[in-house]
Amino acid sequence: MRWLVLLLLLALSGCASYNKTEQGAPQSLVSFSAEVGLALSAPPVELLNSQWQKRMYVTKAQTQQALLSQLAINGEGELRLALMSAAGLPVFTLSYKAEQGVTAQRFIAAEDLDPSYILADIQLVHWPVAQLNKHLKGAHLIEYRQDGELIRELRQNDTSLLEIRYGAEVIILNNKIHHYEIRFEEVKP
Fold first, then answer.
1. Which residues form the signal peptide (predicted)?
2. pLDDT by residue (tens digit) across 144-182?
3. 39 vs 25, 79, 109, 113, CA distance in Å?
4. Domains observed in the chain
5. Gap between the Cα atoms of 160 and 101, Å rounded
6. Which long-range contacts (CB under 8 A, 24 or more apart) does 1-10 make?
7. Can you give the pTM of this predicted structure?
8. Residue/partner pairs of 67-72 with CB below 8 Å, 24 or more apart
């Protein structure tokens, strides 16, 4: 009986936290600062018809959130992302098509998790550097190897704003503007 009451409370709180669908404008610009932004873009051809699951550990101001993400990109370039809490509760779902912008549906109030920013971070990690640089405003992305590790850096003049390190088992994105870090880890069967 206790489990039934707990399940009912969780269901009701999920409904109470539901927000309306958010629509972004086509060519949504995600601003990292007043001078720097990324216009979200269509997935590159090599990522069409792909999908993955990753654990995401988001750390900001000494707090960490563990999330499970599922991403799928169909043959027409539509991207769908579902984010769930570590307990398996849906946080939000997102879909993106270049000509329609971002559509997100929130299930749990999470002020620090903006769907457009998460999509921008995913694009910075996975999209080709040349494509990203065409859509960046006020900064540029460079890619290099250091001690065998692949690194991407978002730079404005000589200042590093964001760094992405590609390890064998983990990808770490460090946003130096907004002071957060995301660790992407593959979900293994």
1. 1-18
2. 999 999 999 999 999 999 999 999 899 999 999 999 999
3. 11, 15, 25, 18
4. 2-186 (2.50.20)
5. 28
6. 10/89
7. 0.82
8. 67/91, 68/187, 71/122
